[in-house]
Amino acid sequence: MKKLLFAFAAVLFSTLSYAQIEGKWKTIDDETGQAKSIVQITKAKDGKYYGKVVQLLIKPASATCTNCKDDRKNKPILGLEIIRGLVKDGNDFEDGTITDPKTGKTYKCIIKREGDKLNVRGYVGFSLIGRSQTWYKAD
Questions:
Q1: 90 — phi, psi (to 5°)?
Q2: Does residue 68 lie within any of the structural domains?
Q3: What is the extent of the structural domain holding 28?
């Protein structure tokens, strides 16, 4: 009976943690295929999810977000909050934004977790018009 209870608890825990995005994720450049940075995603007190660059794996052309147009303008990319305000909706995380530090553009964002991968989609208007990246769980 204890083994059955333990197995049930393990399955329940893995199911609940499957749809979580909190933690560190290795970003992959969708143009070059190279690992660019490590982004740490956390859940804030408001229940929304935010992500900031905690490590650079490739030296960027500029160490600051010179093209950003909001409060992030000229802020260092290392430590920059690039994901803001995501809300969990079932297994998806949406209604937030993601900023590309290279271009300074901010897009609407949807993130879906599949195992140790995040499918990150930034878009303007409709989710069909945008670009996607796959991020991998960082150790």
A1: 70, -120
A2: yes
A3: 21-137
Give, in order, the Cα–Cα distances in Å from 104 to each of 14, 43, 82.
37, 24, 10
**Helix (H, G, I), strand (E, B), or coil: what is residue 129?**
coil
Q: Is residue 3 part of a domain?
A: no
The residue behind tokens 């000229």 is: 74
Tell me 52's DSSP state. Answer: E
129, two tokens? 């018009």
Question: Is 15 among the domain residues?
Answer: no
At 40-54, the pLDDT tens digits run: 999 999 999 999 999
In the chain, the amino acid numbered 123 is: Y
How many domains does the chain contain in total? 1
Q: Are 121 and 127 in contact (CB under 8 A)?
A: yes
Residue 125 belongs to domain with CATH number? 2.40.128.520
- Closest Cα to residue 93, out of 74, 114, 76, 77? 114
How far is it, in rounded angstroms, from Cα 110 to Cα 95? Answer: 7
pTM of the shown model: 0.84
